[in-house]
Hints:
About 0% of the residues lie in helices and about 40% in strands. It is mainly beta.
Amino acid sequence: MLQSVSSRHRFSLSVVAHRDTPAIVVPPGRGGGPAYRGPGEVDYVCGGCGAVLCDGVSLGMFTALAFACRCGALNRLR
């Protein structure tokens, strides 16, 4: 789901099972922020808790990756 937040957009990723993931990106250590920061206008957020997992992507980036969230959910673009 794409939501507009000022000039930025938030896209909620889908929570998936571990068996459905080709590669998993683990977030930085405690308090380390998103796993990726870039110049894009879209933020990928956890489908479980809403935490920002990728800040500043272009929609459609990282289609083959899953992102682990600190809440325990495994997220992927679908």
